[in-house]
Each structure stands twice: as C-alpha cells, then as structure tokens.
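Illustration: Glycoside hydrolase family 1 protein.
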Amino acid sequence: MDVVTAGTKTNERKLTYLSHDQKQSHPFLGMFTLPEDAILVPFDEENYPNHEGIDFYGQFKEDIKLFAEMGFNGYRMSISWSRIFPNGDDDQPNEEGLKFYDAIFDELLNYKIQPIVTISHYETPLALVNKWNGWADRRTIDCFMKYCQVILIDTKIKSNTG
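Result:
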C-alpha cells in the first residue's frame, strides 16, 4: 500500500461501550475509580450517558464508505482486548470478536484504506483488574501475551499490524 497521505483514527472505547455480540465484557475504562480506597463501581445503567458510542459496531460499513468519500487512505484503529478475550483469561478467543475485526479489515481494504492497528489502547478487561489487580500481577501480563499471540496469528489482523 502507498504512504498514508490522509487518514483518521479512533479507539475502540470511544466507538462502542459494549458490543452487540454480547460476549465482550466491560473493559476497565468502562468503570470509574472513586478517589479514596480505589473502589470500583459500575456505572448506573439508568444514568449512564451512552452505551452505544457512535455505534461503529453496527455502522462500520457506512463509516468506512464515508472515510473513502473524504479521500482517506489510512485508518488508525484499536482492537479491544475484552472483545477478543471477554474475561481476559478465557481459554479460547471470542470468535465473534475476531470476525468483527476481520470484517472491518475487509471493508477498509475494499476501499483501499490501510488499517494501522493498535493492539491495546488502555483496554484491560475489568475481570482481570478485579481478579488480580490488573497489571500489578504477572498473570495479567501472561494473559496479555496470549491476547497478542492470537492477534498476531489471525491472518487478517496480523497483516495489518506494524
């Protein structure tokens, strides 16, 4: 692919809060920490401002078409760890999550838009934070390495990571 001369970027957290495939868990950034004692509290469902984000999950084909119409030939995006491994330490990756990203890559390449992938944009699965205190525990690093291995083995994702 040629050099990216015009592009755009997003990160998974800003696109969708939770996926429609219902297998993605809460990422850590989907929660908030109180100042004292660092108690994790889920957002109140009734008062949470928006769980859909811009609904990229449901509208990515239309959005990518708009990117092409704007003349973009590059798109920097992130992959959500909790979409691939909902609990972070799952035995097998979420196939629906992998299919979702494969479909995005297919659509981007259909419009000759080069995907530029970030494999982690502050998206630690909340389950690992609750279970092992996140990155403070070596087991989280091991889980991240497993996630990276899956991402780098998947052919469509592998060919679009730097």
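Reading the tokens back as a structure: The chain has one domain: 7-158.
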